[in-house]
Amino acid sequence: MAWISTLIARFALPALLSAALACGAPSAARAADSISEQDAHAIGVQAYLYFYPLVTMDLTRKQLTNVVKPEGISAPMNTFANIPAYPTADMKVVVRPNFDTLYSSAWLDLTNEPVIVSVPDTQGRYYLLPMLDMWTDVFASPGWRTTGTEAGDFAVTPPGWTGSLPAGVVRIDAPTPYVWIIGRTKTDGPADYAAVNKIQAG
Question: Would you state the torsion angle of the CA atoms of residues 27, 30, 32, 34, taken in this order, to the nearest 10 degrees?
């Protein structure tokens, strides 16, 4: 979790300063004074809330990638886990899952290099591949509404990456070195599973 320490170092000072100002510090001179226990507690709470998504997302990542091959909704890093049927009522990894789409989930590891995500031609079928950074924010969502339904290749690049990409590959800059894709493909009931499973396999 060294990358979390780096992010905390990068964002902690602004976060703590903002928290201190929110607690009523009138000037920079106040920072030099000792603060009350109440103010220290308030700053600590704000810092905890600010960084909490990083911790929970990393726990989720480790839980869902701790396998050697795809199993259910779990898969190794940089590998899609394609769910072949609608989620059951007891599925709790994703809060309130859809019941009109089939899921394709993947965690990307960008710590060494970009990862190229390829999508097949869905022949007009609605799909989306929302990409979440470790703050839980969706920063890109290739799919029917944004990029169309033809086949395509998307290079998800780590923060600060400056290399070159092959021709025809669309660049997507990720804010964090790990990314969670929670893909969905429209499915018209169990009779439609086979057609959607073929798209998922692509």
Answer: -170
Domain boundaries, the chain: 2-65, 81-201
pLDDT at residue 8 tops 70: no
Give, in words, the CATH class of 81-201: mainly beta
Residue 20 belongs to what H/E stretch? helix 2-22
Whether the pLDDT of residue 7 is over 70: the answer is no
Residue in this structure with the two tokens 């590891």, named with its chain if needed: 109
Distance of CA 15 to the CA centre of its chain: 22
**pLDDT single digits (tens) 49-68:** 999 999 999 999 999 999 99
Q: Half-sphere exposure of residue 171, counting CA atoms within 13 Å on the CB side?
A: 14
Q: Which residues contact 15 (CB under 8 A, 6 or more apart)?
A: 46, 47, 50, 51
Residue 25's identity, in one-letter code, is A
Q: Which amino acid is at 180?
A: W
pTM of the model: 0.79
Q: Is 14 exposed, middle or buried (0-12, 13-18, 19+ CB in 10 A)?
A: exposed
